[in-house]
């Protein structure tokens, strides 16, 4: 899908914002799109690296079918090559010879077998799995299952519009808010397209959107970037859009850095709230009070969380049962 044929058997891929021009016999940045004699092939269709029934809160999605399970699938490759990637074993490699194949219909069967309410494409970047996720999402809709992308947001508008009618949630990373940071972390020069596509997911396709920023000490923990992200969420997505500020653990090429201090996460929480966001959550710190959902209107706790253990105690649909405020939940 989304292939443009060029002269001399070259092709241009329009699945992600790299828009790679690929010569015959070569691969795109994601290493999963190959030019074979002037035709573009998706190398990873139905190739599965990882699969598991996951708490939806693991994505993390806190305002989307709370307490449910999503059958979670990952493939191989990525269009980012983040220096601190925690899934680098699947995102920074070629497809191994012993990779498992899982046709879309089988994925839906497993989703139902494990009593999951929906299916999530995660672990690596789902946009580069476009054809497979699209076929699967159409089948999921037929079975009344919800669908989720856990994404870096670097899909093109064309890719988003292809899957938009069948995708319910867009859980997106906004990793930082400067050109220098995105260049240093992922070698990605045009990151602001992520913001545009995310806004399009919400406005054009009515997807439920939640934003994650994994805070890395000394790289994206400055007030300018954190306030920039919070202000953008408020202005582009709305003040009730959840923002997850999560603790970085040293990994991959950033294993020399330290774990993010709790005080840094709490400062990010305050920045988000001072910018007007109603729901800011701390991630990778189970047991912290800022995991819970508190009604911004009456102050009552409506969802209690301890890690992935979730208890809905004060919701009626998307509203606070104590005062009736709309809390921006997407429910079954």
Strand and helix layout:
Elements: E1 3-5, E2 11-13, E3 21-22, E4 33-36, E5 39-42, E6 47-48, E7 50-55, E8 69-74, H1 88-91, E9 100-101, H2 104-113, E10 118-121, H3 130-142, E11 146-151, H4 157-163, E12 169-173, H5 179-186, H6 192-203, E13 208-215, H7 223-237, E14 243-247, H8 262-274, E15 280-283, E16 293-294, E17 301-306, E18 309-312, E19 315-316, E20 319-320
Parallel strand pairs: 8-10, 10-11, 11-12, 12-13, 13-14, 14-15
Antiparallel strand pairs: 1-2, 2-3, 4-5, 6-9, 7-8, 16-17, 17-18, 19-20
- CA-atom Rg in angstroms: 20 Å
Count of discrete structural domains: 2
Amino- and carboxy-terminal Cα gap: 32 Å
Q: Give the topology string: H per helix, E per strand.
A: EEEEEEEEHEHEHEHEHHEHEHEEEEEE
The CATH C-level class name of the largest domain: Alpha Beta
Can you summarize this structure?
The protein has 332 residues and is α/β, with parallel strands linked by helices. It contains eight helices and 20 strands.
Keywords:
single chain, 332 residues, alpha/beta, TIM Barrel, 2 domains, 8-stranded mixed β-sheet, 3-stranded antiparallel β-sheet, 20 strands, 24% strand
Structure description:
The protein is α/β, with parallel strands linked by helices. It has two domains: about 5-40, no CATH class; about 45-295, Aldolase class I (TIM Barrel, Alpha-Beta Barrel), CATH 3.20.20.70. Helices cover about 25% and strands about 25% of the residues. The chain is built from eight helices and 20 strands. The chain has helices at about 90, 105-115, 130-140, 155-165, 180-185, 190-205, 225-235, 260-275, and strands at about 5, 10-15, 20, 35, 40, 45-50, 50-55, 70-75, 100, 120, 145-150, 170-175, 210-215, 245, 280-285, 295, 300-305, 310, 315, 320. An eight-stranded mixed β-sheet has the order 7-8-10-11-12-13-14-15. It has a three-stranded antiparallel β-sheet with strand order 1-2-3, with no helix packed on it. The chain has a three-stranded antiparallel β-sheet with strand order 16-17-18, with no helix packed on it. Helix 2 crosses helix 3 and helix 7 (about 225-235) packs across helix 8 (about 260-275). The longest helix is centred in the last third of the chain and has 15 residues, at about 225-235. The chain is globular, with a radius of gyration of 20 Å. The relative contact order is 0.12.
